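To the wet lab folks,

You asked to see what we're planning to order before we commit. Fair enough. Below is the target structure as tokens, and below that is the sequence we designed to fit it. If anything looks off to you, flag it before the synthesis order goes out.
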């Protein structure tokens, strides 16, 4: 009697033929690495931050950095975008809320101080004011981002003052646009002073004085 040849199970064949994954899995988390790059750029600025510094901070070698984020300038821009997104998220509920104008401003400036005074090695200030504004001089893309950020902040403050005027918290003659620019200027002032290690108590005195100017007459 002729014996039939037993064919191997299909699953065994497919398992043997299954292609092996090429390369190694990423040993880093992009969002964490970007956050570390952001901290470094925010502390030292663009020019003073080397690729070796970024590699050490993120735990990624240069080829991995290039593969994940592009060159140094692209990583800087991505870091700045991340900073703006985080700041927007921290402020958006306050700007959209309907607190009385004085309380709303107090909360906005308090959150801003929390951001500017943070940092393990000392206050880091504001990414826009401390580093992006300098890079904006020669880089049109960064300049456009900085100007967009200024405009966005002005519009957010203007909406707060317009609402306060409609609710009778400010006189009918109050100019929401001018008040918004004063509020934005105060934000920039405390950012610079925070980076220079002005104590929070002194910054809060500046904030209170600015708020009194903006809404005190009401």
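Sequence we intend to order:
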């Amino acid at each position: 009697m002729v014996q039939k040849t037993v064919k191997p199970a299909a699953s065994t064949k497919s398992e043997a033929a299954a292609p092996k994954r090429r390369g190694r899995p990423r040993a880093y988390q992009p969002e964490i690495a970007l956050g570390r790059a952001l901290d470094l750029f925010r502390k030292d600025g663009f020019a003073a931050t080397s690729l070796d510094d970024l590699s050490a901070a993120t735990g990624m070698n240069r080829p991995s950095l290039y593969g994940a984020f592009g060159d140094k300038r692209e990583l800087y821009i991505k870091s700045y975008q991340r900073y703006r997104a985080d700041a927007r998220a921290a402020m958006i509920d306050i700007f959209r809320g309907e607190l009385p104008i004085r309380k709303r401003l107090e909360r906005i400036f308090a959150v801003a101080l929390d951001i500017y005074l943070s940092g393990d090695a000392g206050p880091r200030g504001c990414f826009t004011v401390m580093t992006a504004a300098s890079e904006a001089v020669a880089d049109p893309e960064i300049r456009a981002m900085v100007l967009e950020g200024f405009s966005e902040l002005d519009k957010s403050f203007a909406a707060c003052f317009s609402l306060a005027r409609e609710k009778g918290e400010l006189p009918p003659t109050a100019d929401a646009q001018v008040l918004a620019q004063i509020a934005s200027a105060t934000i920039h002032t405390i950012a610079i002073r925070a980076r220079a290690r002005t104590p929070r108590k002194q910054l809060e005195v500046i904030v209170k004085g600015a708020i009194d100017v903006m809404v005190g007459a009401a």
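Structural context that might help your review: The domain at 83-215 is CATH 1.10.357.10 (Tetracycline Repressor; domain 2). The longest helix spans residues 140-166.

Thanks,
Computational group
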